[in-house]
Amino acid sequence: MRTALTDALTQLPDALQSVVSDWINDANFGASFTPEQVAQMESASGLSGAALRLALLPLAAAYAVTPISQFNVGAIVRDESGTLYLGANIEFTGVQLGQTVHAEQCAISHAWTKGAKRLTDITINYSPCGHCRQFMNELNGAESLSIQLPQCDAKDLHTYLPEPFGPADLGIESRLLTDESNQLSTDDIDIPLLKAAADAANRSHAPYSGNYSGAAVETSDGEFFSGMYAENAAFNPSLPPLQVALIAVNMAGYHWTDIRSVALAEMASSTVSHLADTQATLDAIDPDIPLVYSTR
Ligand code: THU
Ligand code: ZN
């Protein structure tokens, strides 16, 4: 287990530490809590709902990868079933700052890669930046998303983002996290990692460019982690497919040194491409990581 996670555990109330330590010591801990685990934590600690999520924030922030800022942000999202997903900010040295993943984006994409369809709450240890407010406005259920910060009443997203600009302004009805199938056939792909990337492309949210795209990362123990591209109505807050796959890798407890190979699948004729940025970010992580690429 990560040292940061062990350290974070000591910041939790004692009653929570004893329940949570068994779970996080499990090598398969996936940085999420089922509704049953949430109920167990609530009864052990006497903290419920938002108070429990605030108490768990140090665990989320322990997943931060911050070689540039050393400023660790933690976020926890709750989906409509009551499952909690942790997230933290991820920075990359050697590329432009635009490749950074914010904690809010991390927690949301983590939930998305595990099948969450609608989020009810997000709990964060710092106020969400403008870029994250805009990213959250793309979500299914953005209108009712509740934002909870320490020492603050919960407020809905549109209190943090008044007079929002969003998908409807561009005539787009689909939202991030709804079931999307982009009708791409992936049956003919015989490289498994590339097929995983293309399957992710099929579930990507790219209504603005039409560049349905996905990435997949294979770790040295043979696990696959997929990431779907998440476009945003304001374009710049979009999250590239490699970042979403790396979020899944990080939240499963792996390090970049565990990456064996990466695949990227995107559309052949599109106005945008992820190839150059994906290659640049991977080169910055480790130039020896092979990238398999295909378009359709
Ligand atoms: N950060 C977040 O993760 N969320 C926010 O909304 C504020 C900023 C991160 C990004 C970067 O890694 C570091 O904090 C400094 O901006
Ligand atoms: Zn942000």
Report on the structure:
It catalyses: 2'-deoxycytidine + H2O + H(+) = 2'-deoxyuridine + NH4(+); cytidine + H2O + H(+) = uridine + NH4(+). Belongs to the cytidine and deoxycytidylate deaminase family. The active site is at 104 (proton donor). One of its GO terms (cellular component) is cytosol. Homodimer. The protein is of the alpha+beta class and 296 residues long. The chain folds into two domains: 3-7 and 30-170, Cytidine Deaminase, domain 2, CATH 3.40.140; 192-295, Cytidine Deaminase, domain 2, CATH 3.40.140.10. Helix content is 33%, strand content 16%. The chain is built from ten helices and ten strands. It has helices at 3-9, 14-25, 35-45, 49-61, 103-113, 130-136, 157-160, 192-202, 241-251, 275-285, and strands at residues 32-33, 74-79, 84-88, 119-124, 146-148, 155-156, 214-219, 224-228, 259-266, 291-295. The strands form two sheets. A six-stranded mixed β-sheet has the order 1-3-2-4-5-6. It has a four-stranded mixed β-sheet with strand order 8-7-9-10, sandwiched between helices. Helix 2 packs antiparallel against helix 3 and helix 5 packs across helix 9. The longest helix has 13 residues, at 49-61. The model has no long low-confidence stretch (mean pLDDT 97). The site of tetrahydrodeoxyuridine has 14 residues, from helix 5. Zinc ion is lined by residues 102, 104, 128-129, 131-132.
